[in-house]
Design goal:
It contains 8 helices and 5 strands. With about 220 residues, the protein is an alpha+beta fold. It has 2 domains: about 90 residues; about 120 residues, Cytidine Deaminase, domain 2.
Length: about 220
């Protein structure tokens, strides 16, 4: 049955207009975003099937390629789903902005939920003022860390522009184990040397795991 063949009071858009978004089911809200179904399945039936089979969380965790392997999802719908997921993350961040960093645990608590399901390493720099308040958060790279990608030029370019007094670096380990690799050690050594040269203090480099974190500062790792 096509959407236009449904009674008006059962159509997601009409129900949204009359009752507001809170009155709609997950599938109905999903249907409004996807807008159209397929020749053999209307958008409500498609939304119900996708949520029943995969759940929203699993759909949002898929890559663009993985989504397109699911029946009924092409490039456009895959992008719509990932756009929904990304907006949700950004809304959560905006609602709970980072204010002041006092310890590595503060960083872990702020980022563990955000990074725990990431399948790739996210390397992030936090720019701080003289009172350790966060001026800006910047994603430096996404993917396996490499000294040619996480280059001091890329890390400190924005920090200089923002007149940051200090920076805190962090990245996640998708394996869940926060133990630093040799590559992590080498990258941190290079960035520590650059920070000393530029006069922008590198306060810490924190690796986020599933249940714990590694702090170069707390472990007093020698970086010289």
């Amino acid at each position: 049955m096509k959407i236009k063949d449904l009674p008006e009071q059962n159509r997601p858009r009409e129900r949204f207009l009359k009752h507001g978004p809170s009155a709609l089911s997950d599938a109905e809200l999903f249907a409004i975003i996807l807008r159209t179904g397929s020749p053999n399945e209307n958008v409500i039936d498609m939304s119900n099937r996708l949520i029943k089979e995969y759940e929203l969380k699993k759909l949002f965790d898929c890559s663009l390629k993985e989504l397109q392997e699911i029946k009924g999802i092409g490039p456009s719908k895959a992008m719509q789903i990932l756009a929904m997921a990304e907006l949700g993350k950004r809304y959560s961040q905006a609602k709970n902005p980072i204010k002041k960093i006092s310890s590595a645990k503060d960083v872990f608590d702020l980022f563990k939920k955000r990074l725990i399901d990431e399948k790739k390493e996210n390397f992030i720099a936090l720019h701080l003022d003289s009172k350790n308040k966060v001026i800006k958060e910047e994603i430096i790279s996404i993917g396996n860390l490499d000294t040619s990608i996480v280059h001091p030029r890329e890390v400190f370019k924005s920090a200089i522009k923002e007149s940051a007094n200090a920076i805190i670096l962090l990245h996640n380990h998708p394996s869940g184990d926060p133990k630093p690799s040799e590559q992590d050690m080498e990258i941190t050594r290079q960035l520590k040397k650059a920070s000393d040269f530029l006069g922008i203090k590198l306060i810490d480099h924190i690796i986020i795991g599933n249940e714990s974190y590694f702090s170069f500062k707390e472990r007093t790792v020698e970086l010289n």
